[in-house]
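INTERNAL AUDIT FORM
Audit reference: QA-55
Scope: verify that the stored structure record matches its stored sequence.
Auditor: D.O.
Record contents follow.
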Amino acid sequence: MSGIAQVLLEMDYEVSGSDLESSGITRRLVESGGRIYEGHSVSNLPKDADLLVYSSSISKENPELVEAKRRGIKIVHRSDVLGGLFNGKSGIAITGTHGKTTTTSLISVMLKSSGLDPTIIVGGEVASLNGNARLGKGAHVVAEADESDSSFLRLKPFYAVVTNAEMEHIDHFRTLGLVKKAYRAFINNIKRNGRLFYNYDDQNLQSVIRSCRGGLNLPYSCRKIKSRSFGFSDKADIYPSNIMMNGFRTSFDCIGKGKLLGRINLCIPGRHNILNAMAAVSVGLELGIKFRKIALSLAKFEGTKRRFQLRADSGGVMLIDDYAHHPTEVRAVLDASRSLKRNRTIVIFQPHRYTRTKFLADEFGKCFGGADKLILTDIYAASEEPIAGVSIDMIRDKVISNGIDDVVVLKKDRIAGHVIGQKRPGDVIIVMGAGDIKKVADEICEKLEKGTGELKKIVKGVVKTEEPLDRHTSLKIGGKASLWFEPSGLEDLKKGLAFAAKKNLPIFVIGNGSNILAKDEGFKGMLIRLSARDFKSLEIRKTFVRVGAGFSLPKLVITCCDKGLAGFESLVGIPGTVGGAIYMNAGGWTNPIFRNIGEAVESLKVISPGGRIKTLKKRDLKFGYRGSNLGGYIIVEALFRLKKGDRAALMSSCSKFLKMKREKQVLDVPSAGCIFKNPPGSQFTCGQMIDTLGLKGRRIGGSEVSARHANFILNTGGATSKDMLALIGLVRDKVKESYDIDLELEVKIL
């Protein structure tokens, strides 16, 4: 509902609505111009309302619904509005008993990062989208299709993804046969010449596909609908090989039609997410997106709220929050947690709906294998009335009969205190359920992160403890930052720096993490990312460009070229932020105007670690090869002076430099770019020396000297900083031995 509301607001409709409780999502709708009320009341319904949209969770007695009927206001189900958004667009609908939210999110982020500018409506909050919906100008609408009440049958997509089909939503589907019938109808709703993507491993889906209308011989056609399968079986059109899992990192080779397409690196764990990623790959390839771009977008995907969401990692205790409420989902979460390699697993579970508890009690009894401690709480009824004889005791008794002895049943308000009293370093606490159990996760998170409470009280931005750095570096390597801070603006940054000074904490501004090697032991201080809007401003006047330090460098280059401003074209392939590029005086291939970005700087607004803001003029600045005299400052804004140029010629130059980058460098495997600075005065580049010494392809652990660009060291999967540093040391020693040159690092060690 909130996703539809967000898109309608962006389409300039007047939107109001109500929910039982306010939340981050409802507050975002208010910020977008919506009128959102807490609680349901007749007074919430505007006098001039033209249309009322409701979801299946709204009862017929809802006062706003009753009042709309009394006034004769047109009333439609949310799926009707979603179906209307598909009109005139290439609709991509994702459905299935499990995994549809993550799969929808992956596909959405992939299309957005590939420049297709899709309209998106997801059933969960996506970090990469800063919400759960957006209005795009492109040809595609990506939407999660709800099967729980068969409302997905009102959609007529061109592309449909079905992740699985299982007995679920017993309040609506009384038999597995009815579930299959609904999915069959959904598949037959795909538009003529459309495409179906399905999970080959799911036997229920196989049965559905074989019985599609017309008795056609699927998977090759269904009402002239083409299909593509994904799965772990090598009989699927796309399947994984050489799977590696380590903590939150998952990587695998993607095989399409028996041929290696490339390697996929994810920062979301679990075999179920491998299936979700392969579904996204299938859709991307069908839309003509290059595999390299698909892999890059999936590698950047940071997950969805309440889908194996890391809420805290403090004092050696990790807290995971997940929406899992079906036995299959619970198994998937516990399977994914094994890659975290923790000492004990403490599980907190809230059943969702009496019907689900009654009909799946036996399965719930078998799905908690691997839990060292299990805490159960009362059933969340949702919109259901209680069923006589159905209670949390049913699941408790079934679990105990299946060999898990450490099981307790507690009221929600007692769980957080109980868990905090039981926790030990090395534990992982997993909170699961689709009801209001998230409040318990919030309470546990607050208790675990009490050390950051002081900072959270004085700043408005994002504060996290024990933040995994492998999520924030292009090498996908690194331990955890003791403190992660994303200030909401300049004043917030000043307050954060004052806190760090008071606590004597080291600070580091991470940018996009594109030239950083973070150590396995992590960073014992405050890491700062300038991600807020204040640090991403852009103003162009004639040949002067004023831009925030957090602005994307490639985006700045393209924008300047599009405005006919020359000088930055060769920087288009450097995947960093403006501040990071200035700090290291980034330079690309030979540029006739500026050899390095520092030559274009007119002035910088900077802040010292003590919180003092000042402006540095051109005369104050000194730039050298991959360096500057800015070591004591944090850059917050830059003023550049460029040259006038021909737009078409500049855009052509950008394309040329990007093509050169694709040809010379490895972009589909995690790296930090060039590892070493080219030695001054030498007739050879680092790459030439390393190549001549026969070190291309040399490996230590998961790190490897690139066979294409010898100054790149790649993370081929599961590499550690120890591996990288050992390989860096080996290369340095060989170059010193043969050329008597001490190679200097271009990458920053964090």
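Auditor finding: record pair retrieved intact. The longest strand covers residues 238-246.
Action required: none
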